[in-house]
Amino acid sequence: MAASGAGSPGRLVQYVVVRSDLVHKLSWPLGAVITQACHAATAAIHLHYGDPDTQRYLSELDSMHKVVLGAPDEAALSGLSESLTQAGVSHKLWIEQPENIPTCLALKPYPKETVQPLMRKFKLFK
């Protein structure tokens, strides 16, 4: 059964964008890459905890909606981060330490229709 409000205007979604080259070209273990996405998503929620959309997202704990997309490489991920910053979209670019490698980014929860146009060029992570 679909969550109440599924598909309705204003549905909140948290986008996570992960570098797909980490798995497919650099041979990172899938678990390590999933961990990066978890770090970014948690950090974005923490940084924007007081935001009304974040609070509403967290209040609907059993119906959270995330979309995980793939960026082909570091340049694409960094370019997306710059575009989001210029557009005023709150997000966290996760940089793995101590290696100092940008691995993924996560947006704070937003109404889907607000941010989906900015994410269209990225495909679902595979």
Automatic annotation (TrEMBL):
The protein's matches in Pfam families, at most eight in alphabetical order, are given as:
PTH2
InterPro entries given in the database record: Pep_tRNA_hydro_II_dom_sf, PTH2, PTRHD1
| Reactions catalysed | an N-acyl-L-alpha-aminoacyl-tRNA + H2O = an N-acyl-L-amino acid + a tRNA + H(+)
Q: Which UniProt keywords apply?
A: Hydrolase
| Enzyme type, top EC level | hydrolase
Tell me its EC number(s), please: 3.1.1.29
Per its record, what are the GO molecular function terms? peptidyl-tRNA hydrolase activity
Q: Can the keyword NADP be found in this entry's annotation?
A: no
**PANTHER family under this entry?**
PEPTIDYL-TRNA HYDROLASE PTRHD1-RELATED
Descriptive protein name: peptidyl-tRNA hydrolase
Source organism: Maylandia zebra (zebra mbuna)
